[in-house]
Amino acid sequence: MTDPDLEITTDDNGVVRSILFHDGPMRAFFAAYPELVLLDATYKLTNVRMPVYVLLCIGANGESEVVGIFLTTHEDSATLQELFGQFKAKNPRWTDIRTVMTDKDMAERDAVRQQLPDVSLLLCLFHVLRAMGREVTTSKMNLSDNQRAAALSSLQKLAYAKSESDYNSLRADLHANCPASVSQYFEANWHPCRSEWVLYWQRQNVTFGERTNNRMESINRRFKAVIKTSSSLPKFFRDLVHTLNCMRQERTHAALTVTDKVKVHLRPLDAVQVEYFNFLTPFAYSLFLKQMKLADASTQDALPVDVSADACPCGYTDTLGLPCWHMLAHRKSQGNSFTVTGIWPRWMKSTMLTNCQTQRASNVNGSHPAPAVHQQHRALTTSEKFQRCKRVGQNLVSLACEGGTDLFRIRMAALERLQLIWEWNGTAVITEEVS
Questions:
Q1: H-run or E-run covering 58
Q2: Class of domain 6-125+204-245
Q3: Contact between residue 33 and residue 57 where contact means Cβ atoms under 8 Å apart
Q4: How many C-alpha atoms does 236 have within 13 Å on its Cβ side?
Q5: Is residue 364 within 8 Å of 303, Cβ to Cβ?
Q6: Which whole number is the average pLDDT over 177-182?
Q7: Are 32 and 345 in contact (CB under 8 A)?
Q8: What pLDDT is recorded for position 362?
Q9: DSSP 3-state assignment of 110?
Q10: Phi, psi dihedral angles at 383 (to 5 degrees)
């Protein structure tokens, strides 16, 4: 096997240091959509206390796809750099990564900077605001409740600053109206890295409109719904492969629906809208339609002076890979019709279907095909387990209440004994005795 799915690194004593899980469909998806990578870690999935780092990319129809998984025993920069090096070796298109979004974990960020020096490193806004909330407290900074609320409000406004002058004005207000402890904390921790979390500077990078790792949190919830906490490594990887297979089937179904299902429009589209609808993926078209509506409602005076049909200084095209409403309004004033200028190939419906076929082929012809999920062996979610137990439990309650008081006490004692055994994580064996 020349390209294994698992790459295991050990120390001099043969103890496992890290594991990289990376299969054919992951490589195919990353090769198609490498521009933005979301990175985060989840914990408590394995019984060897190895955190699970997940790399996520966004596809043509707005879908999330896992493109790499790291397990490590040490969460230090050197180990993560080694794993990123292995990931790069398997993915020649790593040079096309434009942006990586993480939380404020210093080891992760240092590893990304060392292995991907030319990418833009951004901070997840949710983690930024949560970190601020944990530090700007009444006890740590000797603030009153009102002072803390005002300080957090000022910090949040800074995160949504739409221009550099707006940011500077809000920063001045923060220094003027907040206690010195808050100002010092902001200057030491957040002002130096403002380009990584403030809206104005984030818009200058490829983000596809993402400012948080909420997509990652959704993936982690799906993992935890199937993978039992503190699983052994064999069981972890078995359940992981099952989960990834289900997610890929959902993505394939969504892609095929784009061509096989006829969409009913509540309002008829004009000729230009029809052409764009047939050309773009549904996700891209929904974004494009918003810009078209803004262009229709705008006036020529509202456009930047240096806007043209093919370029605009607002940065929307650089962020999402679609023309902004300024460009669309300018095209409309010039009488332009349908054009693909300003649209990245990743948003084309034809490109999405081609990539989907490539990814399906990689799943079939990969060096280590994932096992199929059979219904009788599929891991049940917590909700499914609860519903099954609920039905049996209701019947047990009814049966326990039937008969006389003596029989009820016998059955109740049996249930209480079973409850005690299960609370101690034991196994009960039932012998049948019919009276």
A1: strand 52-58
A2: alpha beta
A3: yes
A4: 20
A5: no
A6: 94
A7: no
A8: 61
A9: helix
A10: -65, -40
